[in-house]
Amino acid sequence: MSAQGELRTRASNPAWPGVPAQHFAEPVSVPDFWLSSVDEMERFLAQAVTKGAVRLLGYSAGGRPIRAVFYGNGRRGEGTTTFSGSLGGHDIRAYLGPDYGKKVLLVLAGVHGAEFEPIVGIANLIAVLETGRDLRGKAWPELASAAQALDRIVLIPIGNPDGRARVPIRMEIARGSDPTVHEYLNCGAWLDGTPIGWAPGKLHIPLDFSRTQFPGGYPNDAGVNFQHDDFFSRHRQPETQLLLDLTAAERPDLILNLHTGVGQKNYFIRTHRPVVDPALGPIFDEFYRRIHTRLTQDGLQGSNDLNREAIPAKAPTSDFNLNTALNLHCGALAVTIESPSHGFTGTNRDGLAAGQTPEKLLDGQLTVHLAAMKFLGDTGGRSRWTPGKEN
What we know:
alpha/beta; disordered N terminus; two-stranded antiparallel ribbon; 15 helices
């Protein structure tokens, strides 16, 4: 199908008739490894997962299934106290339970529906865990080995299927340095076409869809961007509640909350410092150093200078959000990692074009998974991170 034919097909979508036709255009050819839509992921999980176990976690506000893939064996048995109690009693093992030494990783993508790169990354990570190769056929023996060193890996490819289904394309057209369409797809626009915007959109939770030309992929079908849910209310969103239930059961050491959204002036993967319990500050510093050292060494940062790229003090700091809620709930180091988008381009630290490609973006995702797994395997997880009676 020609690009123009694809554009006409998308423009006929009756759900959002006011959307400019070109905003729902796709490339003529989408790479086979670029698996990003809700329907594609459902088929992929049903067909490709044999070593892991696919489980239904629950349903979105719009009634769509949310699934996770589980590898390895999780913690067995319960602790004797709450996470907060373990901090007060200075022994995290009392919360983690008898298997406190197990190393547990949870990875979440697709919290925002037009952020495709992390979804593609998890699909290809699953392929590596199942076959040793990504969906391009590229072998990742070091990544497969790093995964084997962990006791439990839990992967949620699309945490917000409502938002992802609302954006009816598999891949954006590359539009040079103009981020307008990408922001439109993610954050939406008011009825007159005025962009809602990234930060202003957070001032409208829940978002009233009747006031929008297009609500974007940020919110679920209840209008809530649950990255900023009302976490301590009885009216929490179902997506938030299933994450709380899952993390209470799994008690992960490390949570990766993967997004697409870095600044154009340093258009490479960035790790954000989370607002979490203070004991994890030095742990985050080492995590950041490990992630960005590996990305730099593999040519996936804005320069080859580790003194520019891998210094934790330079990490942008997040506000209170889902990561904080998960940390306070289960004790995990929960971290947002942002990717560049395939839909528009930025520059490196010296102002030169960043030169991102779908292949390079996938390499960045899988390199993050590799570095994160090696970090957790090497450092041992929360029972070794937090000083306790015998630590």
